[in-house]
Amino acid sequence: MANLNKKNYDTDEDYPIMEGNRTFMAKNLTKELYRKLRDEHTSSGFTIDNCIQNGVDNPDFTLGILAGDEETYTKFAELLDPCISDYHNGFSKDQNHVTDLDVSKIKDDVLDENFVISSRIRTGRNLRGFCLSPWICRSERRKVEKLVSSALGSLTGDLKGKYYALPSLSEADQKQLIDDHFLFEKPISRHFTSGGMARDFPDGRGIWHNEQKNFLVWVGEEDHTRIISMEKGGDMKKVFTRWADGLKKVEDYIKQNGSEFMWNEHLGFILTCPSNLGTGVRCSVHVKIPLLAAIDKEAKLKEICKKLRLQERGTSGELTEAVGGVYDVSNLDRLGSSEVEQVNRVIDGVKLIIEMEKRLQKGESIDDLIPQ
Ligand code: ADP
Ligand code: MG
Fold this sequence. Notes:
Layout: H1 11-14, H2 24-28, H3 31-37, H4 48-57, H5 72-75, H6 77-87, E1 116-125, H7 138-152, E2 161-165, H8 171-179, H9 190-193, E3 206-210, E4 215-219, E5 225-232, H10 236-256, E6 263-264, E7 268-269, E8 282-288, H11 290-294, H12 299-307, E9 310-313, E10 326-331, H13 339-361
Antiparallel strand pairs: 1-5, 1-8, 2-3, 3-4, 4-5, 6-7, 8-10, 9-10
Helix pairs in contact: 7-10
The structure holds adenosine-5'-diphosphate and magnesium ion.
């Protein structure tokens, strides 16, 4: 809840320091708009100050905004719409998002396994009616955990698995799961701590996975759920097929139990960080490309990825360094294009990146392969 003493001060006296703040939040939150929004709140009590804390504390971030509930996106649309447009390639407030989970449209190229170590697709889903991680209270978080783990308990066959509440896992087991890229990190990064997403950790958090550990669900991290399919090698169509199948089964069960995922026609699936709106999909490969990465100390790789609408991360995910030339390369866009389009773009883009690495291995130029 907002600090009620705020009302004793003029909004201008409360305006954050925006000089040197590079976030889209700072760019779009003028003094005038802050004046208008400061004393507003959603029905759960989430305010504009709660929403922007992530960006006020981290002037170097890209977005600097987190939603505390589904209503944040409508209540504070005057700030969120332009930020969403800045982040998502000009996606306008009048546009509608498209969902397409049709497996038959996914390209069936298996990516060259001399370069691609593993393939993964994740999305986030949140349950309607509960606050999001920056604003969720303990009882809500525990209820979400119960609903989701019970839905997952209904999966059978290859998807049959088990839920492990984080407090029940030893430190050593947690570390092993993190090192093997299955489990999320402890929420100690600035992204989690400023804005409230690390509160009460590890209460209400956990991981569910099937026996083969190729279908996994994180509970209570940045979103209520992160639904993941992953395996060694470069067969993205296989990864997508399992992911779409598991996702549908979980959704069906959630619906049967009177609940539903947060979604609307304009923004698609509603996630905590506006960067994930739309499909919520991050389709990634771990790809070994030491030669391409060595050009201008990663600058060329970053430039190529951007042109291909891809993003590169380090070996252990966001804000980590690449080890042994292994990068996590994934789709950059999530809103305004469908799941199928985003995954196919990764397949095509990574094929091209591998082609470049092969040329460099032979000492040849890659100039003609670089997209304009
Ligand atoms: P996200 O939040 O999008 O799921 P993170 O960057 O936080 O992604 O990474 C989460 C974990 O998933 C990390 O351990 C990361 O190394 C792992 N990961 C991401 N892509 C792959 C992949 N293709 N193969 C294996 N592990 C992966
Ligand atoms: Mg993450």
